[in-house]
Amino acid sequence: MIKPKYLLAILMLFAGNCLLAQSVPSWGGGADQKDLSFGFSFSYVSNYFKIDKSPNWRAPFFDTDGTQVTSPLKTISSPNSQGFAVGFLARYRLTDHLETRVAPSFVFADRTLSYTFEDPSQNTLKTVQATTLDVPLSLKLKSDRIGDFRAYVLGGIKYSQSIGSKANIDANTAPIDKHVKNISGYASYEAGLGCDIYFEFFKLSPEIKLSNSLGNVLMHENHPYSAPIDKLSLHTLMFSLYFE
């Protein structure tokens, strides 16, 4: 029969070994041991337009033949619209705490504009259909690693290119049925924060990022929904999971 003091010593030794084993940081698939590594991402996207109106934006719209198409406008707004993105990640280590990365992704997220008129029957929502290829280039500044966790901030620029857009899709429609369109390519600046969580065979990085377009993304046209707007800027919130 094992004496209690020996049993206690064995239990303490076993517990100490378990604690020591748990304190060993996870390998994370070796991503941080390489200068160059790759991964993929899934993202939730929420966006809306910031609207700069034309000086006479409330005026009713008249067709080229002088026919009044709409009553005077009361409001133009842009509700939040949701979508998703899937992408690819390429990361290059500059120092232990600084890296650069490019993360091209296909973004499937429409945008919405809401118009209210003095004649309520003319109130409408206009969806700006958009599928884009986004190519962001970012610098990522990382904290020291604490166990299996490391926080970071990042910032950079992004170029977005529309895919499959048709500028003349409504060329033969009446002014009241026209669509609002965006330019095919535009740049944005972005900033975000996140954390690296290390597992045995991979690294998971939840990240939240804000981006704002540079310049005007509106394609100006002479119809009731484009003419009242002087400038559109796109604001995007993206929550992503990166697997590396």
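the 2nd protein, sequnce then structure:
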Amino acid sequence: MAQGETVLVLGATGGIGGEVARQLRDAGWGVRGLRRGAGASKGDGIEWIQGDAMNAADVMRAARGASVVVHAVNPPGYKRWAELVLPMIDNTIAAAKAQGATIVLPGTVYNFGPDAFPFIDEDAPQHPVTRKGAIRVEMEARLQRASMEGARVLIVRAGDFFGPKAGNNWLAQGLVKPGKPVTKISNPGARGIGHQWAYLPDVARTMVELLAHRHSLDAFARFHMGGYWDEDGTRFVDAIRRVVARRTGHEPSVGGFPWWLLALAAPFNVTFRELQEMRYLWATPVHLNNARLVQTLGHEPHTPLDVAIEKTLIGLGCLTTDLHASKSSCTS
């Protein structure tokens, strides 16, 4: 337990930030969340502070007395990444240095290029092939400098996020349609090409457990999660089919992802353009090595795949919480 310790979560209204905030609260932390809008939720055990992660003074004020700052904020819909991401991390760094706090960053595989593929250690060279990857590299470089200037840093990298409240993610944006029964699954990957996934509650649990060890970790500590490794690009989709069939009695079909349509729409849609840029991650196996994490914790928090997918589809409104109703609606 972390009785008496305070954590500030930037991005607490989003997917990973919200999950980390809830799990830290349940672990005994005093949790603050920064949000732009008024009318904060009451009764959720989180102290909501009005402010903007782009405003240095707001972040500095919200971080007073905090021993940890979770930086889980990103521009919505991938918009204005180049001009917003680095100023936001600079605000977090300044606040953490002032408090002598630990910064927690949910990391990605964007940092790495082909010279690090396919099995990637935490210290692999970072030569990204995309604009977002270059920004991620710069974020981590700034965090490493901050770790030499009074802050501590904990980075947890994982595969493609999914979960009941994951926000922007491939499962919800590409494989199924939120709010609708799953009758067809679009698979963005090519058969035979491995792909890595990460269940959001497992990622949050990993961060919570690592924070309990933070004083014994390096000042600049990086860990990779194994998550779910789909070794041939079909097992994740097969798990969705299996869960839906069990819940509804109907097995959805599987088709290819319409990359051609994404390419046509990319010039007119920022989100499509950013998704198109990350297509290379579906064309080559990219597998994170979690040996350091397992050595540190003795295990990796891991929810069985079918359970994780079922909870995710319920959260997306693709399955009802009532098993009997699911089967009835399918046959009616």
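The first helix runs from residue 15 to 26. Residues 328-332 have pLDDT under 50 and may be disordered.
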